[in-house]
Amino acid sequence: MTMKIAIPTSDGIRISSNVLHIKGFKVFEISDGKIVEESYVIRAKVVNNPVASGDNRNSLSHGSEENLSFLAGIDDCQIVIANGVGKKMFEELVKAHKEVYITEASNVRGAINHFIRQTLRNHPEIA
What we know:
- The chain is an alpha/beta fold and 127 residues long.
- The chain has a single domain, classed as Nucleotidyltransferase, domain 5.
- Helix content is 23%, strand content 26%.
- The chain has a 5-stranded mixed beta sheet with strand order 3-2-1-4-5, sandwiched between helices.
- Strand 4, helix 2 and strand 5 form a beta-alpha-beta unit.
């Protein structure tokens, strides 16, 4: 089985703890317990324009726009591994059918290796 995992990071090395201000995600495709592909996806920007012409973005709150821009780059990922995302973002990820792991790990490579070995500790209570 193949799965995609997104880890919020600004430098590709450290897991970012402030997910609303990240530059992007390190995305790993895992198959049969091995990394088969990895990439860096730049976070999509959503511009808050109250005078936009007739689209639904006008009715979104600032928080909703931040959530949409956060999720836009990882729509094909089934799992998100983060240091913390805040309760509201955690709920948005779950609503978007993402399995969320909250870890104390700070290194992207270490976290993905622990996930593959099934030794990644999940702490959803600190979301």
